[in-house]
């Protein structure tokens, strides 16, 4: 899969059988190839490179591309920026080659086929730079590259001098398009790894921070800047991401979310409280953090709200307190773990509602108002699925006299019903029975109240009646 310079000097090459390589070099050291882990590490390194530009992407299998338009002057110009990037990556123990050009394809070729470790192609000199390079510098598919070599086309300059029509007729559109994008004749789209957010604040530290308290201080400063950006446009955000760039190249990403639109710096700090606690106990800050950024996502227009008078103000404060409590639980345990019930359009009890994460607004809360009279007759505790019971009734279709549930016998003193619910015949899934149900509200001698139902009717030949307990009243 890969070799280093020492192995290549012994005659080892990529694609060689391992037995042959060991025969050539008995002291050869090998390691298992992990392309998936390599890609993850490369992506983490790409996130680290966001300290130089917000537009970064991975160039598989071994490259990273940065769009540094408008960023170079922050580092003293393009040559100084290239030198600093190379020096820092070398300190990570990485061998790096950097290419700088007006086009993505030109920069890719300069990094891999340039004469020096740092290669800069000046504006207007792309054609002269690419002409003497081999066609491999265009990053063409292997089959097209082999066909070009069979035709005697070994240099990019030969392709530049060849008209586009014959190339397109023989190789399709990919070859001329790749050549035009590398030369800057056609536009090339740069798709960044993470789309840059408009609401973003960052802080570069003179000395690395090694304690969480320092991170909290920076978060307070960044939160204030983000608050100014959001409030100036009457907007709020539902999600935030804090990125901590460590000196050794590791990037720690902390996420926090809010159920309501947030534009307050103090509350942003509160949202990250749980994440910072985990950072202090579970994450090694290494040699320190020298760059921190804070971004806001899911930004929406924030409507002005009147606080109200009297009792309304107290109710509003209670709502805010509940939302903040749910945000703390959500950021600690995960918002997907905290759910609430929303109504569904079904008369079958176990289908009349479903659980959704508490931060999702479905707009169905008003549906409960129309079901108020029915919901008052339903128990607070419903079993899903209903639990089978053994029932004795005076007549087959009459109310139960006693039933056995969980190895305990219950003698019924009062019974109310039946409430008949027809099956939803239009549903094809077989998770529930397609028989008619008769529901009874019963009370035993101890005063316990249950909600029982008989699934199926005795007068119907194809039905197989059986009893279940659906819920327990408070």
Question: Secondary-structure blueprint of this entry?
Answer:
Blueprint: H1 5-9, H2 18-24, H3 35-48, E1 56-59, E2 63-66, H4 78-91, E3 98-100, H5 104-113, E4 118-120, H6 126-130, H7 142-150, H8 156-161, H9 164-171, H10 174-183, E5 200-209, H11 212-232, E6 235-246, E7 251-262, H12 265-271, H13 273-282, E8 289-301, H14 311-333, E9 339-343, E10 353-357, H15 367-370, H16 372-375, E11 381-393, E12 400-405, E13 408-421, E14 437-444, E15 449-455, E16 466-472
Parallel strand pairs: 3-4
Antiparallel strand pairs: 1-2, 5-8, 6-7, 6-8, 9-10, 11-12, 11-16, 12-13, 13-14, 14-15, 15-16
Helix pairs in contact: 5-10, 11-12
Number of strands: 16
What is the count of helical runs?
16
Can you summarize the main beta sheet?
A: 6 strands, antiparallel, barrel
Percent helix: 25-40%
Taking all residues together, what is the mean pLDDT? 86
Count of folded domains: 4
What is the quaternary state of this protein?
Answer: single chain
How far is the first residue's CA from the last residue's CA? 67 Å
**Broad structural category:** alpha+beta
Strand order of the largest sheet: 11-12-13-14-15-16
How much strand content do the residues show? 25-35%
Identify the overall geometry: elongated
Low-pLDDT residue spans? 366-373
Measured on Cα atoms, how large is the radius of gyration? 34 Å
Characterization of the model:
It is elongated, with a radius of gyration of 34 Å. The chain has 4 domains: 34-183, no CATH class; 200-301, 2-Layer Sandwich (Dna Ligase, domain 1), CATH 3.30.1490; 341-372, no CATH class; 377-472, no CATH class. Helix 5 (104-113) packs across helix 10 (174-183) and helix 11 crosses helix 12 (265-271). It contains 16 helices and 16 strands. It has helices spanning 5-9, 18-24, 35-48, 78-91, 104-113, 126-130, 142-150, 156-161, 164-171, 174-183, 212-232, 265-271, 273-282, 311-333, 367-370, 372-375; strands at residues 56-59, 63-66, 98-100, 118-120, 200-209, 235-246, 251-262, 289-301, 339-343, 353-357, 381-393, 400-405, 408-421, 437-444, 449-455, 466-472. Mean pLDDT is 86; it is low at 366-373.
């Amino acid at each position: 899969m890969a070799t280093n310079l020492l192995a290549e000097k012994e005659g080892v090459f990529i694609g060689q059988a391992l037995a042959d390589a060991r025969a050539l070099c008995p002291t050869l050291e090998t390691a298992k190839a992990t392309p998936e882990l390599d890609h993850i590490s490369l992506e983490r390194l790409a996130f680290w490179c966001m300290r130089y530009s917000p537009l970064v992407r991975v160039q598989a299998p071994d490259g990273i591309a940065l769009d540094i338009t408008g960023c170079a002057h922050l580092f003293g110009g393009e040559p100084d920026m290239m030198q600093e990037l190379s020096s820092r990556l070398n300190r990570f123990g990485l061998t790096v080659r950097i290419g700088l050009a007006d086009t993505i394809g030109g920069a890719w070729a300069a990094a891999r086929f340039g004469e020096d470790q740092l290669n800069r192609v000046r504006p207007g000199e792309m054609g002269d730079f690419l002409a003497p390079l081999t066609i491999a510098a265009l990053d063409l598919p292997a089959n097209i590259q082999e066909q070009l070599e069979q035709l005697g086309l070994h240099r990019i300059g030969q392709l530049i001098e060849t008209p586009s029509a014959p190339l397109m007729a023989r190789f399709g559109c990919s070859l001329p398009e790749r050549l035009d994008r590398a030369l800057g004749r056609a536009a090339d789209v740069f798709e960044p790894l993470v789309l840059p957010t408009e609401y973003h604040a960052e802080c570069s530290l003179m000395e690395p921070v090694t304690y969480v308290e320092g991170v909290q201080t920076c978060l307070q400063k960044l939160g204030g800047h983000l608050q100014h950006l959001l409030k100036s446009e009457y907007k709020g955000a539902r999600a935030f991401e804090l990125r901590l760039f460590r000196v050794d190249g590791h990037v720690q990403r902390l996420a926090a979310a809010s159920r309501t639109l947030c534009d307050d710096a103090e509350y942003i700090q509160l949202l990250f409280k749980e994440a910072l606690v985990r950072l202090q106990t579970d994450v090694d800050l290494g040699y320190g953090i020298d760059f921190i950024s804070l971004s806001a996502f899911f930004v929406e227009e924030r409507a002005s709200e009147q606080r109200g008078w009297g009792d309304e103000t107290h109710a509003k404060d209670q709502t805010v307190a509940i939302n903040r409590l749910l945000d703390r639980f959500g950021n600690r345990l995960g918002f997907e773990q905290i759910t609430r019930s929303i109504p569904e359009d079904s008369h079958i009890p176990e289908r009349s509602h479903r659980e959704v994460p508490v931060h999702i607004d479905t707009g169905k809360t008003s549906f409960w108002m129309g079901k108020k009279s029915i919901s008052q007759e339903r128990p607070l505790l419903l079993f899903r699925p209903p639990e089978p019971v053994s029932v004795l009734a005076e007549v087959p279709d009459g109310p139960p006299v006693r039933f056995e549930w969980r190895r305990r016998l219950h003698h019924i003193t009062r019974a109310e019903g039946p409430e008949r619910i027809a099956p939803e015949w239009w549903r094809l899934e077989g998770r529930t029975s397609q028989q008619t149900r008769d529901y009874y509200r019963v009370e035993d001698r101890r005063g316990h109240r249950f909600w029982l139902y008989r699934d199926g009717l005795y007068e119907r030949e194809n039905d197989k009646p059986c009893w279940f307990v659906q819920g327990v009243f408070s």
